[in-house]
Design a protein that fits this description.
five-stranded antiparallel β-sheet; alpha+beta; 10 strands
Length: about 180
């Protein structure tokens, strides 16, 4: 490596001012995995994919001990839960991300941030373990809440069918789960 390669040699250098980055760190924030996946699909892979040059992050998903790690280039996204990377019991869970690309700070930063913030997990759930509910699965079916915050989903529901089928309630909304 040439130690002087960074020294100005009298040549004019032109830098592209349209390339910028945004980065966030949200201590204590945990995400709803279903909202996160929708946001990734819509924002990163469809809307801003051409303008994103590089992005990466480490996220805390509510109800999941493993860290959600992602990275990507343009619309090529790679991410998921890492079995070998868990949040330690004494470690403060948080979400951190950085996005580098064309006009990230100038035009896309606020949209990225607000979309990301909409992925935050519900603070309080409407139903508790044991509550009877109606779950939207091929129409509406009777169910019982078995667990809250199961694998990033607000609810794990046991349908009251012959097989006692288990399903997830992906969001705490009347679109997915409602009172009987």
């Amino acid at each position: 490596m040439d130690p002087g390669f960074l020294e100005a040699g009298g040549e004019d250098h032109i830098h592209d001012d349209s390339v910028s980055s945004v980065a966030w760190q949200f201590p204590g924030m945990e995400l709803n995995v279903n909202r996160l996946q929708r946001w990734i699909g819509l924002t990163i892979q469809q809307e801003l994919g051409q303008d994103l040059y590089r992005y990466k992050g480490v996220l805390a998903v509510k109800g999941v001990k493993q860290k959600f790690v992602f990275q990507g280039v343009h619309m090529l996204f790679s991410g998921g839960f890492q079995d070998d990377l868990e949040w330690a019991d004494d470690e403060k869970r948080e979400c951190r991300a950085v996005f580098i690309g064309k006009k990230m700070k100038q035009e896309h930063g606020e949209k990225l941030k607000s979309g990301f913030m909409e992925c935050e997990a519900e603070k309080e759930l409407r139903f508790n373990v044991g509550d009877r509910v109606m779950a939207r699965v091929r129409g509406w079916q009777e169910g019982k809440i078995l667990k809250t915050w199961d694998m990033g989903n607000p609810y794990r529901i046991e349908l009251q069918d012959r097989d006692k089928t288990n399903v997830w309630g992906p969001e705490d909304s009347d679109i997915c789960v409602r009172k009987p």
